[in-house]
Amino acid sequence: MKMKSPLIAYWVLASQAFVWMPAAAQNALTVPVEIVRVTNPDLRTESRGNVTLYRFHPQYTLQSVQDSSRTELSLGALIERSSNTDLSASRSLPSVGLLWEHSSPVDVVVLRASLEEASTRETEFAEFGRVTQDSTQRTALVRGTWTRNLTAGSALELGASHARLSYDRPLLVDYRETLTSARYRIESSTTSRYSLSASASRLNPDGGGEGASRRELGVGYEVDIREGLSLNATAGVARSTVPRKKTVPVGGLRLTYRGELIGYQVGWSREVSAGASLGGYMRSQGFEASLTYPFTTNTSLNLGFNRAQSLEADRDVGSTVYARLRSELTRFWTFTMGVEQRRAKPFGRPTARGNSVAVGFVYAHPNF
Length: 368
Prior knowledge:
Layout: H1 5-20, E1 26-39, E2 50-56, E3 59-66, E4 69-82, E5 91-103, E6 107-119, H2 120-128, E7 136-151, E8 154-167, E9 175-187, E10 192-205, E11 212-226, E12 229-240, E13 246-258, E14 263-275, E15 280-294, E16 299-310, E17 317-328, E18 333-345, E19 352-365
Antiparallel strand pairs: 1-2, 1-3, 1-19, 2-4, 3-4, 4-5, 5-6, 6-7, 7-8, 8-9, 9-10, 10-11, 11-12, 12-13, 13-14, 14-15, 15-16, 16-17, 17-18, 18-19
């Protein structure tokens, strides 16, 4: 019951936002529906079998702009039913978000609040390459940022956030994290920008466990190489206290191209972030690459590869290769089809593989 009462409160709060917004507000509705056939969904070395998942994922957005202020409310849910709950649980994962933004000639203030649920099988695999129990993660987040333009080519951004993460299985540790950050940006030319950033966060696990802290300093560089092609690079150091005191390098590289026909992006990152399995901060690195190619004006193919690795003692590695096809049938309906393979390599154990095939439709109405 402890996971239900906060959810009700957030839904009540979100419903009140409809009263605040005028009748002229813009809204949009998107409803993906798909059937997914998955082999070895829990990624074991010896597969326990296959499962069919039926997914319904409605998302609704309501936005209002009044003078220099913008308010946006988003509601969504992932409803998934499984043909074999021993292999993959049936789940209903709601989400709600509220954003308020106010702009002036020199300042921008953004406030956000959100509550969402997700499968730990998805979140832990994407962040740390780890295969965990099939459980539910709930994230409640409040965040605020203030940006001030100091000159025509420089700006200062200050931010603060507080997050509460909880789980419905005892294997993962519930925790609260408070973060503050500052970033200074300057344009060195019309095509390049530099930044200097600093952040500090504190993580407190529930149940009286030892708290952890993290401090990070970094520099960044962005450059528009040519039209449609840009490079973003960051480098810095992070010091955390749990599971052990250590200072490590962090950073990332991302190359992005968006052309009239083809688009692609390649990125690598190394970071220190909160991990529920240890109740502290964990090192990880990731790599991703994707390519989008349009066959026609209405049909496109997306190919991609993602890899996540924990840099702690477990050294888990998880990777995903996928191909997805989208074809617009009418103004509001789109046909989707995709194939995916996942690989998991726990430290010291054989590689496990799982495949999936998905077929579905997406209903999208920009002014519902």
